[in-house]
């Protein structure tokens, strides 16, 4: 027994001396400030859910450039707009890489997708396809009809429910989350494969397959992000944390079957329609088949589009409606702007968006308070560099806490309040203070699409209906769990048709 305690004491002393040695070396290297850490696991025990709030608390104590050790991985957390600007300008190429994460290897086809691929030829090819073709201004103009139709169908379904339940003259209770999710999914799927997946006109078999895919994407979101094995790889052979790796493999297999079916169906459709002749590319899958991409690369791109483009937009719209319900004066102002600019005889279209500053200010403020990615996708330094005056070695993971930057009282007046008018006259002055889609070459290429989707849907909902919260209490703004920071409780609200929109708009849908 005494020998056992002697071994424990010796090991503890060795680990303590190792910690002091690492701390001394860290100070000599001019590393960013760091909390005390434990041997081997580093600061992992300090990281609790929600991670963006935990990191904000640590940054408030240790500074806007914070050094952490996640097991064997060195991490630097950025919570300052000026340092974020430095990362995405002077150090943009150095930080253009992505860390290799277990979720990317298993569920995103070896990490060779536009979101997870390391900086190099594969990523540049996918970026060219995505940013310069599918999501370019021309590409988005080609898919405009689908977006307008899906917004029209959303409005039509609400009009029918409100008319049937209240005789068209009163408020009726509606649940919004599922409606917004289905609209977002239909828009993205029409761009990917040319098919709607939800709605009365969709085949029951297609709807069932889509529902399974939606559930798989939700599981993918739940399992995505950083895993303990990413930082303590030696544990992968010893323990599977809560069965996560087995679940990742299962989700990957099930989603692969559905995604392969989508490709095979479109490939078969092309063969039947062109009779051996080359046909015009109308969808993302068409474009990628025409350019000779492998099925695995196409499936990875489909999964990336669905993961990044559906839940994020739906979550943003749900937060927007929740905030507007709690601020009816802002809702009335946006409604008056729409009546003045668009009128009451048609729905707003994308050509109107830049003429609606009040609506854009609302969306900016929603994205500031509830960014769909509170922690931007992690970057990794490919060589030694300086960030915020500190030395950052090669291979360091860089986390930009957008949520903390966008709620920093040193950066924003009254940062926790919903004040859309704060953007009046700012123009681009808020570029690195407001970064929900990231910045630099690894920023989200879907920012333009997201703005169009959210703007069109939000404009139509404000134009066509009156809204009130259920009961006298404000809408609950508690955050749920997940990397897109959803509302904890799905939004339900009272909806009433605006009489002035019935004759020329709603009855014509």
The number of distinct structural domains comes to 1
CATH fourth-tier homologous superfamily: Cytochrome P450
Q: In the CATH scheme, what's the topology name? A: Cytochrome p450
Radius of gyration: 25 Å
For the secondary structure, the number of strands is 9
Structure class:
alpha+beta
> What is the global morphology?
globular
With strands numbered from the N-terminus, the spatial order across the biggest sheet is 1-2-7-4
Mean of all residue-level pLDDT scores:
88
Binned strand content? 5-15%
Description of the structure:
- It is found in: Membrane.
- Its cofactor is heme.
- It is built from 18 helices and nine strands.
- The protein is of the alpha+beta class.
- The chain has a single domain (21-508), classed as Cytochrome P450 (Cytochrome p450, Orthogonal Bundle), CATH 1.10.630.10.
- Helix 8 (177-193) packs antiparallel against helix 13 (295-309), helix 11 crosses helix 13 (295-309) and helix 14 packs parallel to helix 18 (447-464).
Descriptive key words:
metal-binding, three-stranded antiparallel beta sheet, four-stranded mixed beta sheet, oxidoreductase, Plant_Cytochrome_P450_Monoox, 50% helix, Cytochrome P450, 509 residues, 7% strand, Cytochrome p450, globular, Cyt_P450_E_grp-I, alpha+beta, disordered N terminus, 9 strands
Element layout with pairings:
Layout: H1 2-28, H2 51-62, E1 65-70, E2 73-78, H3 81-88, H4 102-107, H5 121-134, H6 137-142, H7 144-166, E3 172-175, H8 177-193, H9 204-223, H10 228-231, H11 244-274, H12 284-290, H13 295-309, H14 311-326, H15 328-341, H16 357-369, E4 379-380, E5 385-387, E6 390-392, E7 397-400, H17 402-405, H18 447-464, E8 465-468, E9 492-497
Parallel strand pairs: 2-7
Antiparallel strand pairs: 1-2, 3-9, 4-7, 5-6, 8-9
Helix pairs in contact: 7-8, 7-18, 8-13, 8-14, 9-11, 11-13, 14-16, 14-18
């Amino acid at each position: 027994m005494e020998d056992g305690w002697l071994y424990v004491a010796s090991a503890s002393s060795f680990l303590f001396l190792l910690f002091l040695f690492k701390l001394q070396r860290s100070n000599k290297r001019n590393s960013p400030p760091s909390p005390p850490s434990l041997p081997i696991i580093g600061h992992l025990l300090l990281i609790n859910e929600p991670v963006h709030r935990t990191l904000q608390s640590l940054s408030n104590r240790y500074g806007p450039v914070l050094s952490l050790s996640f097991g064997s991985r060195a991490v630097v957390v950025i919570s300052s707009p000026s340092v974020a600007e430095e990362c995405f300008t002077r150090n943009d190429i150095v930080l253009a890489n992505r860390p290799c994460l277990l979720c990317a290897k298993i569920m995103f086809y070896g990490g060779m997708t536009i979101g997870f691929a390391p900086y190099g030829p594969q990523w540049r090819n996918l970026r060219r396809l995505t940013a310069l073709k599918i999501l370019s201004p021309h590409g988005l103009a080609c898919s405009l009809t689908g977006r307008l139709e899906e917004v029209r169908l959303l409005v039509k379904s609400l009009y029918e429910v409100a008319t049937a339940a209240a005789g068209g003259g009163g408020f009726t209770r509606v649940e919004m989350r599922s409606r917004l999710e289905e609209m977002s999914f239909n828009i993205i799927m029409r761009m990917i494969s040319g098919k709607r997946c939800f709605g009365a006109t969709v085949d029951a078999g297609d709807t069932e397959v889509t529902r399974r895919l939606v559930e798989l994407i939700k599981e993918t979101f739940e399992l995505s992000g950083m895993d303990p094995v990413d930082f303590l790889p030696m544990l992968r052979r010893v323990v599977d944390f809560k069965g996560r790796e087995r679940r990742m493999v299962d989700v990957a297999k099930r989603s692969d079957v559905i995604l392969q079916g989508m490709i095979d169906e479109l490939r078969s459709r092309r063969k039947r329609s062109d009779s051996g002749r080359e046909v015009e590319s109308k969808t993302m899958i068409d474009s990628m088949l025409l350019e000779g991409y492998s099925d695995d690369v196409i499936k990875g791109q489909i999964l990336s589009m669905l993961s990044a483009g559906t839940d994020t937009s739906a979550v943003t719209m749900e937060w927007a409606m929740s905030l507007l319900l709690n601020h009816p004066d802002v809702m009335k102002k946006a409604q008056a702007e729409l009546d003045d600019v668009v009128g009451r005889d048609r729905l707003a279209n994308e050509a109107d968006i830049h003429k609606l500053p009040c609506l854009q200010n609302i969306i900016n403020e929603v994205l500031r308070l509830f960014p769909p990615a509170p922690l931007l996708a992690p970057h990794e330094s490919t060589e030694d560099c300086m960030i915020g005056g500190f030395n950052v070695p090669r291979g360091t993971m860089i986390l930009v806490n957008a949520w903390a930057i966008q709620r920093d009282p040193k950066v924003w007046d009254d940062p926790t309040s919903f004040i859309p008018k704060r953007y009046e006259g700012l123009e681009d002055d808020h570029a690195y203070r407001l970064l929900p889609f990231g910045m630099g070459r690894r920023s989200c290429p879907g920012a333009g699409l997201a703005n169009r989707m959210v703007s069109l849907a939000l404009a139509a909902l404000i134009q066509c209906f009156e809204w009130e919260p259920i009961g006298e209490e404000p809408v609950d703004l508690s955050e749920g769990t997940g990397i897109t920071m959803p509302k904890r409780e799905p939004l339900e609200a009272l909806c009433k048709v605006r009489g002035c929109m019935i004759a020329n708009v709603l009855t014509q849908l």
